[in-house]
């Protein structure tokens, strides 16, 4: 069989995609997926044993979602900016509908109703609403800036209020925090008055204080962070032990012991598994990959936005990268006891089907919006 290669003059869909997509950005994302598989193979058997399942239960389930996720990344990354907007709009409307249904029909897990069962599959709508909201919001902001008669800012306010309100009802303050930070950055990138950014930041602080005062589970997490003796800190103590035991080089693949004691070692605390088995080296590599994705995507978006005078691309990629990077930051900071624990997956590394597919949608749109476009023709070789 001949090797499959793509010349710069290849005008096929795949050929144009290969020569216009940011291959360095794509490589970093694929590396995160590979690291996630390795860490899940380390943490999955122990997690499966706690529910009396087959040792490879979580590994197999993750592999079920991996091919569709890769397919979504590829297909969505082929789209033009117009196509990205259309896909995001459909995904946003669908995710909002599922967010409305979840509290009514979804099962209560740890006091929250965040899942909807469709055809035997459990779906977490919030994982899909985040990337879709980032693009739809960017669309409205950019249209409002280009056309003063278009109520882009007001539309964005309504969409944000709807999304945040539905997330709070579940309740899911972690995702609300990510959505709020993402929207705040887009607000700033859209060039809206700085005083409004300050007002929004102040309102966020008021909301955080209100959540602490009114919601016992939020208060408990903050109190345990500030004063570990005030409540159960079992998981964070074990996570910190994992980092200490791993040291610089780690104990070796499969040699970790703390994962057998951490209930959420395959999801919220998978960074601790990385620290114990592979040491500081892998942890720094993971941090570096996430930082590279955020910086690379934003630099590409800003370059393209200036070349094409396309504000939508810059705001859209800005929102998608903030979501991607902040989700990783919250997961790692929680594991390192740098902030109150919050159940949030590490992008492409933690176990979770909805998380992987939602992130695939977001990354696909990120790759589509950062592709090179020559002469106004999407996907033209350069």
TrEMBL record:
Which top-level group of life is the source organism from? Bacteria
Cited InterPro entries: FtsW/RodA
Q: What is its EC number?
A: 2.4.99.28
Task: Provide the GO biological process annotations.
Answer: cell division; peptidoglycan biosynthetic process; regulation of cell shape
Q: Which GO terms describe its molecular function?
A: lipid-linked peptidoglycan transporter activity; peptidoglycan glycosyltransferase activity
Q: How does it sit in the membrane?
A: Multi-pass membrane protein
Q: Enumerate the UniProt keywords alphabetically.
A: Cell cycle, Cell division, Cell shape, Glycosyltransferase, Membrane, Peptidoglycan synthesis, Transferase, Transmembrane, Transmembrane helix
- EC class, as a word, reads transferase
- Keyword Repeat in annotation: no
* A Gene Ontology term for the protein's cellular component: cell division site
Asked if DNA-binding is a keyword of the record, the answer is no
Q: Which reaction does it catalyse?
A: [GlcNAc-(1->4)-Mur2Ac(oyl-L-Ala-gamma-D-Glu-L-Lys-D-Ala-D-Ala)](n)-di-trans,octa-cis-undecaprenyl diphosphate + beta-D-GlcNAc-(1->4)-Mur2Ac(oyl-L-Ala-gamma-D-Glu-L-Lys-D-Ala-D-Ala)-di-trans,octa-cis-undecaprenyl diphosphate = [GlcNAc-(1->4)-Mur2Ac(oyl-L-Ala-gamma-D-Glu-L-Lys-D-Ala-D-Ala)](n+1)-di-trans,octa-cis-undecaprenyl diphosphate + di-trans,octa-cis-undecaprenyl diphosphate + H(+)
Compartment(s) where it occurs, according to its Swiss-Prot or TrEMBL record: Membrane
**Spans through the membrane:** 24-43, 63-81, 87-104, 152-169, 181-214, 278-299, 311-330, 350-369
Q: Name one Pfam family in it.
A: FTSW_RODA_SPOVE
The UniProt similarity line reads: Belongs to the SEDS family. FtsW subfamily.
Q: What is this protein called?
A: Probable peptidoglycan glycosyltransferase FtsW
The species this protein belongs to is: Novispirillum itersonii (Aquaspirillum itersonii)
């Amino acid at each position: 069989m001949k090797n499959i290669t793509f010349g710069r003059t290849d005008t096929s869909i795949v050929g144009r995609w290969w020569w216009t997509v940011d291959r360095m950005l794509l490589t970093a994302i694929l590396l995160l997926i590979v690291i996630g598989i390795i860490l899940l193979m380390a943490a999955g058997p122990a997690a499966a044993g706690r529910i009396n399942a087959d040792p490879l239960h979580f590994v197999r389930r993750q592999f079920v979602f991996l091919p569709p996720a890769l397919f979504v990344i590829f297909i969505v990354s082929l789209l033009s900016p117009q196509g990205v907007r259309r896909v995001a709009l459909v995904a946003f409307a669908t995710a909002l509908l599922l967010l409305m249904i979840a509290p009514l029909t979804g099962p209560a897990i740890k006091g929250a109703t965040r899942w909807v069962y469709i055809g035997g599959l459990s779906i977490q709508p919030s994982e899909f609403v985040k990337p879709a909201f980032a693009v739809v919001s960017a669309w409205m902001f950019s249209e409002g800036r280009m056309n003063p008669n278009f109520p882009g800012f007001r539309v964005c306010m309504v969409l944000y209020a709807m999304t945040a309100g539905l997330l709070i009802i579940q309740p899911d303050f972690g995702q609300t925090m990510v959505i709020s930070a993402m929207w705040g950055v887009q607000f700033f990138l859209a060039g809206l008055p700085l005083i409004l950014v300050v007002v929004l930041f102040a309102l966020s602080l008021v909301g955080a204080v209100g959540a602490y005062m009114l919601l016992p589970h939020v208060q408990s997490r903050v109190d345990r962070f500030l004063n570990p003796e005030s409540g159960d800190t079992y998981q964070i103590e074990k996570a910190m032990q994992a980092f200490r035991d791993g040291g610089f080089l780690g104990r070796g693949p499969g040699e970790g012991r703390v994962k057998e004691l951490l209930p959420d070692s395959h999801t919220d605390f998978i960074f601790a598994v990385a620290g114990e088995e592979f040491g500081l080296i892998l942890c720094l590599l993971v941090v570096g990959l996430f930082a590279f994705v955020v910086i690379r995507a934003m630099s590409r978006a800003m370059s393209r936005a200036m070349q094409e005078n396309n504000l939508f691309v810059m705001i859209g990629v800005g929102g998608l990268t903030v979501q991607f990077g902040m989700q990783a930051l919250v997961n790692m900071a929680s594991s390192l006891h740098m902030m109150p624990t919050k159940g949030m997956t590490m992008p492409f590394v933690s176990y979770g089907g909805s998380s992987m597919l939602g992130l695939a949608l977001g990354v696909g749109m990120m790759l589509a919006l950062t592709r090179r476009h020559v002469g106004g023709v999407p996907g033209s070789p350069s």
